[in-house]
Amino acid sequence: MHDDRNPPRYTINDNWPDAFGTMHWDTTPGWGESSSGKGDVNAWGASSATNKVEIDGRNFEEEENWWDAARRAECKRPGPGVLPPLLSELLHNPEHTLYSVSASLPKHSHSNSTSSTSSGSSQSQSTIHHPPSAEEVRKAVPHANAYYCKEHNGWVLLSWCSSTVLPPFARSFNPSSPLPDQARRKRTQSCVGEGEQPFGQANKTHHFHKYERAVDARMLNTPFKRSEWEEEELLKRRRRKMTLHEETMDTSVKVPQVEDEVEGDLLDLYVCCQCSVYCLASQVIPGVIPVKYVEDLTKDKLSHPSLDKTAHASVLSAWETIITILQNRIFKGENRVLPVTGAKFQSKIGWTPVIRQIFEQLGFPLRPLVPSEEQPQTLQPPEIDPSTPAGRRMRGKLLRAWVEVCAYTIIFQKSKSSTSFGNYDAQKLSVTVESAREMYQTGIGAHVNQIPRGLLPDNLLGCTDLNDVWEGLGMTPSSYSHDLVTFAYLAQCRCDPANTPTYFGHLHKLHEVMKTTGVPSSAREEIEMLLLQEKSRGRWSKEDLKRGAAVLGFGLDNALGVDLDDEVDEEFILRAWKDGLKRSWTMEDGNERRMQLYDALKILSELKSSKRLLDAWTHEKGSGMSPDAAYLALQVSKEVEDDMLITVYTFAVQDQPSQIEKMRNALTVIAESRDSQRLRGFLETGVDPGDVVQQVKMDMPRGLNQLGNTCYLNSLLQYFYTIKDLREAVTPLAATDFKTLEEKKLSDDDLKRHRVGGRLVTRREILRSKKFVNQLAELFWNLEYSEIPAVTPTMDLAKLALVTSQDEEEDDQCGTATDASNDTDATLVDDGPLPSRTQERSNSASPVVMSPGSMSDGSSVLGKRTRTDGPMDVDMDSAVDKGKDSYVVVEKPEASSSKGKAGHSGSAEVEMVEDVSKPQPPALPPRKPREVDDSVMMFGRQHDVSECMDNCMFQIETALLDFHEMAGTEDDKTSVVKRLFYGKKRQRLAPLDASEGAVSRYSVHEKEDLFSHLHVNVSEEGYDLYDGLSRYFDDVVEFEGVKRRMEVTLVDLPPLLQIQLQRVQFDRETQQAYKSQAYVKFGETIYLDRFMDTAAPEKKARAKAIQTRLNACRDRIYKLTQGKHAPFAPALGGVADFLEKQDALRLEEVDDDFIAVIKAEKDHVSAVLEQERAEAGKLKEELEAVWKDDVSSPYELTSVFIHRGASPSWGHYFFYSRHLPDKPDSWFKYNDSDVSIVPKEEVLADTTGSTANPYMLVFTRKDSDVVHTVHRFDADQLQDA
Fold first, then answer.
1. pTM as predicted
2. What interhelical angle do 677-685 and 642-655 show, nearest 10?
């Protein structure tokens, strides 16, 4: 891949221009493209067989209707593709190696010299020789992207890059299949590579599509043009072909003239349909010496070596002699003739017809020394004077030949052992050669580090029966893995839906061959699961088609007496199907035959692309099953009600997806026998129409209906409603008059009265915030007064909550100043990058305290989806300690810390940034308006609760401020948001070594700041909430290349304490983010005394010492159980068991003693692990004993946010809230529209092994009375009053 991180390995010269226009990851839209594209449905309930494989761009409706030609024409899929390993073989013969070649001036070459011209007489004349320049030598290689092939003695043009702009097509290019969707391609730079897929791995690898002779090499940014001598020879060759053609054809037919041909070499184009990567490749560009002569000379020398040399040395000597002759002519101006009968010439190279052909190709004609038969024959050096056209062409040709012969000689020498050359002393050549295989394999995603090799079961090695399978799926047998086969199959069905049966047939054949060759069932399991899943979706192969036709009676020897061909119409097939159904009633296996008939009709309807046949199958497929059989299929009695039937059916389909057709047939029969409109409606829509709104108790909270992927927003809105003071502050704004607000202008002085999130706000943000709070107040009113179980938030509320003001402004593409966006200079806030939100294991490396310019952008759910907006502290102008080095301590936002746009900063680590009071560089120019991407959901790009919470809190605080009143104190705790959610902490950055701190008072930095969240990094099992907070409050960071201790203490506690459990982790091995499912133990009450600034110093010191020992102990446990190559004990036990039982290989070093040593090591590791665990438990008890009497700062658990899902990129959110103040032992579970009462044991349960884990905990100060969970209007109480 040619980018800054992996620069092109062109060894020609660094001065080569960007040969193919965009040899880096260029994501700039071009050629009329926009950054938008239609998103495909890719979450339609695929089973586990395919959920494990990352593949994007699929469309359920399109895949289900693969047989519909009209649908295919509408979707314009590009057709069959290939995976990178097969592409690597298609680019050039896989048995050949391509080399990157560079050339430099030989030593002892001169800028000019005098050469003598010898002739038959004694006369001689001196001429000035002009040797080639370094630039000429560099350009002797055909192109910056030309790679040498020794087996062809030629060159291959090869380039790969990522660019949203495809290279210009040749005029003659007429694609036989559509090009991939360019809008989709531009969304991702590359399907492979770290950080190339910003929202997580979407595709396992590339899927390339070939377009032959698509690109004219002359039209590239750095054109490839044949040299003058090549063009001359090509022209001669074309004319010879045309002359031969004219002699055998009618002279009345017009022959195209050579001069009419304006296209150059045409390159094959390979385009990945899912990202911006594409590849260009040429046919072999022949070298100066035809490969036949090269091979003949080498074979001749191997067969007839010189007497004083080995066979390999003789080959080397011959080619080096030719190199010397070329160098002398090119670089030294040697112009004397070369007698071929001379002793040196004969001993080094000899004289054969092959040698004569080689020198004729090089332009050295054979002539007598003087025109006399008695004179010896000599080779006449060609003219290479650059001042003449002929000399210039010959000069270029000889330079190319010199490079090619040098490259061939070097590769030949490297391919043989040094001993095979005897004592021969090889020349040191001025050409360097390096294999390019790994480079281009990495560039296209085919390297072994990107796609592993060697996973093909031994039984399939060399199995030629599968050659058509590998070719059809677009992969190679060496790259086989379960995941890659799945990806290849799904990718082919996605891109070439018309041939879905063919690809399913390949999959079926692979499985059958695996069974017949004895591949173990464990190695076939994943393929079997995929087959079952695809069969449940109605996939069929050609074999299934044959069986289906036979079931319907087709075949000369069958019931119908005719073969199934194109002449058979729909009516005939329908009659055959109905006749088959009638016959099945008299068969003992009638049920099985009816199922076969339904399958056959489905297959033929898709084969014929017949909607009529498909409609018949859809409406009548269940009619052949009797009601008794239908009830038996669903395993229910006849007395079961419709609602229970639907429930049973739903669970049966989930548990047995391969039986979905059978279950549906059964339910269809029952629906008809009962004449149940409810069951019919369910079968048609998939939704139970019989669900009626049930009355719920007046004192139960109301649920919130989803608007589409808004379960996290629903959780947040319910949480806000439970907070009494916040609810009471918001409710009065339901009657806001927005017309008055829009007419009422705020002056610049008004806007400067308050800061929200450490910055001033704009008029647009104020108006927007008041609209949000108005909508929120209306929702709160509905939650209080509604009589139905669930209410629906408005679209406006969802949009205002999920889309920040900055996102909105960017989407509006505000290219000019407006009253809303350009209020005053004081409201403009510079953007700055945020650090990555994915968390690595905290003890694997010290956190780095970064400078603003070095922080990188990241994204995560359950941690924080970030943007490139600058971090901002709440009221950052207050309390700042400046040191001598003009640096100040500011917050380093964590996963749920706020951005400047949302205005609520979290607190985690600290970082040193330059004092903003110093002169700053000029502001950046206005950002280019961002084009709207159609793939973004209707509510924008914000997709996690933490950022949504920040945005909502920012808008609530902004809406509640009075901009005609002066702000209060710097902390401004008059704001209900700050009063409820914000506390104060003190951060201290000090040297690890106490002696360093004594040297300079400037080595310690302190700062007080507000916080709204505390953060706990969740990476390992066996931790509780105190353990996680301890790492937050006392950690080691890296600052200016030196490790420092960062200590955080709490100065002032808020009524509501929000603790973010950061579950997004980063796997160093896979280079992928993942969600940690580790269980973090927490209870109903937490005491924060140990984290307070006023905590006893002696206790803190004792606790720190114990914590250090505990951390070291846990680290050792982690290495033994979860570290690299862990767990060790089970691995050692498995090795011992395998060696004891295996008898396929005879291993002399493996005996009983060796196995006993392995078992003993396994027992030792197990014992050490148990000892470490016991020690960790003991140290934990000691640590808790230190603080057991410190209970003056109690907080009680009131809310728990849950994320259910295996990935940090998707899942479901719900929310628990404690029933306060009335029933503190009871909890409500808010799951969108469903609200239920659950016991506290469910909330506090151990979630080990589950994907439903807490990601945010909310505690309230004991006796603070800030949460009133149920706030419902009671008409009875009003009547009594």
1. 0.49
2. 30
